[in-house]
Amino acid sequence: ELQQKVEETEVLKMELQMLETERVRLSLVEEKLLDVLQLLQQLRGLNISKRALGKILLSTLESCCDPQPGKAQLLEVLDTLQQELAACELLHKQPLEQAQSPRSLSNPLVISC
């Protein structure tokens, strides 16, 4: 009976360890999803077109194409999507900076030079 209890205890420890590992993995997925959603909200505020967002999504899915999808691929897709969206956000910030530079040209001091 003691040996059986020890074996049951070992099995329960292994199950607990597997649950903890899964909890950590799900926590990472949740964080990535939140990051992606925040980037999507920021891009929506910049009036990015649905077509551009669709291209980003399709590009992400194509770059993460794997014949054997699994849990690791999900995190890879989310990570890649986050990087693609972040790069897109940076591209949209540049036109704002360029739009500000013509205003500086309208400065009378710049014209007189």
Low-confidence stretches: 94-113
Distance between the termini: 96 Å
pLDDT averaged over residues: 78
Helical content (DSSP H or I, runs of 4+): over 70%
- Beta-strand portion reads under 5%
Strand segment count: 0
3D structure, described in words:
It holds the Pfam family CCD48. This is EFCC1 protein. It comes from Melospiza melodia. With 113 residues, the chain is mainly α. It has 2 domains: 1-45; 48-89. Helix content is 87%, strand content 0%. The protein has 4 helices and no strands. The longest helix has 44 residues, at 2-45. The chain is elongated and about 70 Å long. The chain starts with a helix and ends with a helix. The model is unreliable at 94-113 (pLDDT under 50).
Quick summary of this structure?
With 113 residues, the chain is mostly helical. The chain has helices spanning 2-45, 50-63, 71-105, 108-112.
Which properties best describe this structure?
mainly alpha, 2 domains, 4 helices, 0% strand
What is the secondary structure topology, with strand pairs?
Layout: H1 2-45, H2 50-63, H3 71-105, H4 108-112
Protein name: EFCC1 protein
Organism: Melospiza melodia
Pfam family, one: CCD48
